[in-house]
Design brief:
By secondary structure, this protein is an alpha/beta fold. 46% of the residues lie in helices and 6% in strands. Strand 1, helix 3 and strand 2 form a beta-alpha-beta unit. Helix 4 runs parallel beside helix 9 and helix 9 runs parallel beside helix 11.
């Protein structure tokens, strides 16, 4: 009986070691092995909060991208438009994240190795706050080098042990490792690259099967529903500031102190989303937000930061949406109204770091902000003329009080 138990225990240990070794080899989250060219990690796409705090330190990046999902899928760290002095670049943007998450990730990366440049994607809705909003620590904060007080995070080692256990010694990881190996070679397999970029390999298939009208329509409905519940304030009660503005100011201040060049980019929303902002009554706040950002960048950045507005009614934002049932026409610059493709991200990088093209990407300054906002109104008039039928259909989705 004792021999039987001993043999059973030995077999169990061997199986456990084998499972851990396989999970380590398959590495479904991309945590342990350098990437083989063409290799994809589909399960890393939903685990950015797990993998990015670790991988950004391994990357030793000189350029960093911060923001939400729009930045994660729009700015490719391997894009040729990045200046050589800012490479390698790591995309540290996280889907669904806010300015507090961006600040904490920047502080974490800065504690590891000082980058030379920072590109921050700015989303209007991240700055809409309740009158008594309290900014909370992000869930991934236990993985960061520093605590919220700027001191070393003493609990990080324990969290690392927990993360290693979860990504090596678990049935989920074993099954995901098997599936990761199975899905290699499939062009439609999603991925999070070693540089933190999500190329959305699965979306061309969605577009072929459903058509771009369906992608835009679903996102338009989601945007209307979510924005209808958002607060309509830029400031906390009784103040002229807010937690997001303070977090952004902290990033700018720290970057200036360390000699880091910062570029802030207001995302290039498609005309559908701009019209949703207008139809739901957010447009005056949208303009005030740009004024506030301009003042903040100039007063805190003090020459080390530049603010770029890509959210106008430029030719890309006026890109027509194919009609229902059209599964052949491709929309070159957007997946839907809120998320732009890397091709448009390339144009943004050219505007920021190179010559760019006239009319796309305007640097906002206190002396030019009002003229720029007036120009946006003229661009909108052109869009309404060009897309009258398309916008009439969009307006049917808006609540009556917004029109």
């Amino acid at each position: 009986m004792q021999d039987y138990l001993r043999h059973w225990l030995i077999a169990l240990v061997v199986l456990l070691i084998g499972a851990v070794a396989f999970s380590w080899f398959a590495d479904p989250y991309g945590l342990y092995w350098p990437r083989v060219p063409g290799e994809r990690k589909p399960y890393a796409t939903t685990q950015g909060e797990l993998v990015k705090p670790y991988l950004v330190l391994d990357r030793e990046a000189r350029g960093l991208v911060l923001g939400n999902s729009r930045a994660e899928i729009g700015f490719d760290p391997d894009d040729s438009a990045w200046p050589a002095e800012y490479q390698p670049v790591y995309n540290l943007a996280l889907p669904g994240s806010d300015l507090r998450a961006a600040r904490r990730l920047f502080e974490h990366a800065l504690a590891g190795r000082k980058p030379s440049a920072l590109l921050i994607g700015l989303d209007f809705r991240d700055f809409l706050v309740g009158p008594d909003q309290v900014q909370r620590e992000p869930a991934f904060a236990t993985r960061l080098l520093l605590g919220p007080d700027g001191r070393p995070n003493n609990g990080r080692r324990l969290k690392q042990v927990e993360d290693h256990a979860a990504t090596l010694v678990s049935l989920d990881t074993l099954l995901r490792g098997l599936d990761t190996l199975r899905r290699q070679g499939d062009e439609g397999t999603d991925d999070l690259t070693a540089a933190g970029f999500n190329p959305l390999h699965e979306y061309p298939g969605f577009a072929r099967n459903e058509g771009y009208f369906a992608l835009f329509r679903q996102r338009d409905i989601d945007n209307i529903r979510s924005l209808s519940r958002y607060p309509r304030n830029l400031y906390a009660r009784g103040t002229s500031s807010s937690a997001p503005l303070e977090d952004l100011a902290a990033i700018l201040s720290a970057a200036r102190a360390h000699g880091i060049q910062v570029d802030l980019a207001i995302y290039p929303y498609h005309g559908h989303l701009l019209e949703i902002y207008r139809g739901l009554g957010y447009w005056p706040l949208f303009e005030d937000w740009k004024r506030d950002l301009t003042h903040l960048v100039e007063s805190v950045g003090r020459g080390s930061a530049r603010l770029w507005d890509f959210s106008g009614y430029h030719g890309y934002a006026r890109e027509p949406v194919p009609p229902p049932g059209d599964r052949e026409t491709t929309v070159p610059w957007y997946w839907e109204a809120g998320h732009f493709k890397p091709a448009l991200g390339h144009k943004m990088l050219e505007a920021i770091y190179g010559s760019g093209e006239p009319g796309f990407g305007v640097r906002l300054t206190s002396t030019g902000i009002e003229a720029h906002l007036a120009e946006l109104a003229r661009g909108r008039a052109r869009y309404v003329r060009e897309a009258g039928t398309e916008l009439a259909d969009l307006n049917k989705l808006l609540p009556s009080q917004g029109n």
